[in-house]
Amino acid sequence: MSADIDLIKLYSTRILGLAADIPHRQRLEAPDGTAKRRSPLCGSTVTVDLVLTDGRISDFGQDVKACALGQAAAAVVGANVIGQDEATVQKGRDQLHAMLKEGGAVPEAPFDGLEVLAPAAEYKNRHASILLAFDATLDAFAAARTAQAR
After folding, report:
1. Are 137 and 88 in contact (CB under 8 A)?
2. Are 10 and 100 in contact, with CB atoms under 8 Å apart?
3. Which among 29, 47, 31 is positioned nearest to 39, based on CA atoms?
4. Distance of CA 145 to the CA centre of its chain
5. Total Cβ atoms within 10 A of residue 53
6. What pLDDT digit, counting tens, does each position of 3-40 carry?
7. d(Cα 39, Cα 37) in Å, to the nearest integer?
8. How far apart are CA 47 and CA 37, in angstroms?
9. What pLDDT, in 10s, does the model give residues 113-147?
10. What is the 3 state secondary structure string of the chain?
């Protein structure tokens, strides 16, 4: 019973609010890069489209089919990713990973809103879903590089 109560607390009003209001939920018609990531443990998926201008995200779309934690992470990423370069997105992903897996600090701005997910560190089976938005965005950067190299 205690584990059930802890899980209910984890799905706080703030997390559920983020999950209900994910920005950039429309796929892009002509992206520079697209990527889809799936969490094998829970089946959550995030597909990201992005357009790059001078190495920075100038347009972004995402299709999120994930648990509330994955949706909340996608909401924070989506709200803050426009204008960011790959290094900043990678740093945010690395900091989120460290927060979840190693007790690291909350990610720095522009992804500091991810602090709401700090209690999820105790739920290792949810980590992959929480990281999906970042992972798909980084894969989309790579896809854009590949497309530009052709």
Report:
1. no
2. no
3. 47
4. 20
5. 10
6. 545 555 656 788 888 998 999 999 999 999 999 999 98
7. 7
8. 6
9. 999 999 999 889 999 999 999 999 999 999 999 98
10. CHHHHHHHHHCCHHHHHHHHCCCCCCCCCCCCEEEEEECCCCCCEEEEEEEEECCEEEEEEEEEECCHHHHHHHHHHHHHCCCCEHHHHHHHHHHHHHHHHHCCCCCCCCCHHHHHHHHHHHCHHHHHHHHHHHHHHHHHHHHHHHHHHC
- pTM attached to this predicted model: 0.91
Tokens of 88: 């900043």
Per DSSP (E only), the strands in the chain are 33-38, 45-53, 56-65
Tokens of 140: 């989309």
For the chain, report the end-to-end CA distance as a whole number of angstroms: 56
